[in-house]
Specification:
It is a single chain. This protein is mainly alpha-helical. It has a single domain, classed as MFS general substrate transporter like domains (Growth Hormone, Chain: A, Up-down Bundle). About 75% of the residues lie in helices and about 0% in strands. Strands 1-2 form a two-stranded antiparallel sheet. Strand 1 and strand 2 form a beta hairpin. Helix 4 runs parallel beside helix 6 and helix 5 runs antiparallel to helix 9. The protein is elongated. The two termini are about 15 Å apart.
């Protein structure tokens, strides 16, 4: 299997598509997790008691920790059975549904806990799937560095999910548009994973297995032909 150096990877359209999908999905996840306290405060959920004197916000924070711990082995197992990109589509689509539900049911304490945990559970798939996909596509020799570069998508998304979401709230005065944006990003990530990323990666890996050099990767956002060293 061909192993790409970080510079070669950065020149490939496949990397840019993968980076975009990761950034979109991470934005949706971070909007819910990073803004959980202010969202809860806006709807009075930091004071609404749901179980044994515990507020909806406090319970959501505790359940989200459990959800975040379970998500990695779960989606890793699913990926091993049905494939990386089918799993991405399912996880990201379910994440979109969770945020869609949150938009409509955020005022209800129990649903706030359940749907925020569902968002965390589906978003956590990124930490398993993209690291594995990076190794699948770009090889194992530089896997650690390449995955580190891929992981910077989280940092990019955090700017928009943190500062950007706060700015949007200040302008509009409601969390609803922010949550709708998170829903749209998750849904778009699911669509791109299945209809764009999956066939692109299948074509590249098929070329590698046949022993030929990868063809020009012209279907990405930025592309160049791989030139063997």
């Amino acid at each position: 299997m061909v192993s790409y150096t970080p510079l070669q990877m950065l020149k490939m359209g496949t990397f840019h598509v993968m980076y975009l999908v990761s950034a979109l999905l991470t934005f949706g996840g971070l909007v819910v997790t990073a803004q959980l306290q202010p969202v809860a405060a806006a709807y009075g959920l930091d004071r609404a008691v749901v179980l044994l004197g515990v507020s909806a916000l406090a319970l959501a924070l505790m359940v989200n920790l459990i959800s975040g711990g379970l998500t990695r082995p779960f989606w890793g197992r699913v990926s091993d059975r049905i494939g990386r990109y089918n799993t991405m589509t399912i996880a990201f689509g379910l994440g979109a549904l969770a945020i869609f539900g949150l938009v409509h049911l955020v005022r209800y304490p129990s649903w706030f806990v359940i749907l925020s945990a569902g968002t965390v559970f589906t978003w956590g798939a990124t930490f398993v799937l993209f690291s594995a996909a990076t190794g699948d596509v770009f090889g194992s020799q530089y896997a650690e560095t390449n995955n580190g570069i891929q992981y910077t998508a989280k940092g990019v998304s955090s700017i928009f999910a943190g500062w950007g979401a706060a700015k949007l709230l200040k302008v509009i005065g409601s969390w609803a548009p922010v949550l709708w944006a998170a829903f749209a990003c998750n849904l778009l990530a699911a669509i791109l994973a299945f209809f764009w990323l999956k066939p692109m990666v299948a074509r590249i890996t098929a070329q590698q297995r046949s022993g030929g050099a990868p063809a020009p990767d012209c279907s990405g956002l930025l592309s160049s032909q791989y030139i063997p060293s």
